[in-house]
Amino acid sequence: MSQTVDRALSILPLLAEGPADLGQVADRLGVHKSTALRLLRTLHEHGLVYRQSDQRYRLGARLFALAQEAMENLDIREIAHPHLVRLNEQCGHTVHLAVYEENEVLYIDKVESRYPVRMYSRIGKPVAITVAAVAKLLLADLPEPERRALAEQLDYPMYTARSTPHAEAFLKELATVREQGWATDLGGHEESINCVAAPVRGADGRVVAAMSVSAPNVVVTAEELLSLLPLVRRTADAISGEYSGRTPVKGTPA
Fold it and tell me: What own/partner pairs with CB < 8 Å and gap ≥ 24 does 112-115 have?
């Protein structure tokens, strides 16, 4: 039974490459055509494959519907939270998770620092979109026209001397973030607070959330915080793998 299931499931990635006829399926599986036909008929009955008029098979609409339903029911916060807690235990600093919704970047989870000096950020509160590291990651992933249109309609308050001053500078920074795959806020919102962030990606590679580690410079210097970037990125990759289904559920690597 397990071999039959394995063979049936092996057909799906083959058809993801494009339509294939019975002979191609049989050859890929290393089975007789009659066996391949039996597997294809079962998958067809469940709507997972479709037989075209040219007698080739392709992925069925039911498969896409199931994938869409599964994605809609995924809770990125629920998946990410254990990883955020583990990261907090490793570094001791405040850890955030944020998403982009309706032209705002919102914190949806937070694990508090173990140090006495703490941040005043709150779950559900919009971030300072032109300076926050998580915002830069989320906006950098937008299509270029949407990214530019949004940048041009934003206000650019100068929270500190390091704040982003205007749309041109913001777009330039987003281009850098998009290329390097991580972001920082080194005193851009508050002089005394530094932050480093990494993206959480879905199965299609798009950024679905961003996570960050933040700390006041009375606890660690900006350079010391930046040294945590590899750990932050590994944590984000672990969340991405679990969210997209690419990796089994397991602990975040140290």
Answer: 112/88, 113/88, 113/215, 113/219, 114/88, 115/215, 115/219
Kindly tell me the burial class for residue 89, based on how many C-beta atoms sit within 10 Å of its own C-beta (0-12, 13-18, 19 or more). exposed
3-state secondary structure 150-205: HHHHCCCCCCCCCCCCCHHHHHHHHHHHHHHCCEEEECCCCCCEEEEEEEEECCCC
pLDDT of residue 252: 43
pTM of the model: 0.70
pLDDT of residue 118: 64
Q: Are 107 and 127 in contact (CB under 8 A)?
A: yes
Between CA 2 and CA 197 the distance in angstroms is: 42
Q: How far apart are CA 146 and CA 206, in angstroms?
A: 15
- Residue 68 falls in which region: left (phi positive, over 0), alpha (psi -120 to 50) or beta: alpha
Work out the burial of residue 238: count CB atoms within 10 Å of its CB; fewer than 13 is exposed, 13-18 middle, 19 or more buried.
buried
- Distances, alpha carbon 194 to alpha carbons 97, 122, 225, in Å: 16, 17, 8
84 touches 97 (CB < 8 A): yes
Give the Cα separation of 167 and 29 in Å (integer): 54
List of the chain residues with pLDDT < 70? 1, 67-74, 117-120, 247-254
Distance in Å from the first CA to the final CA of the chain = 39
- Provide the greatest CA pair distance for the chain: 72
239, 109 Cβ separation under 8 angstroms: no
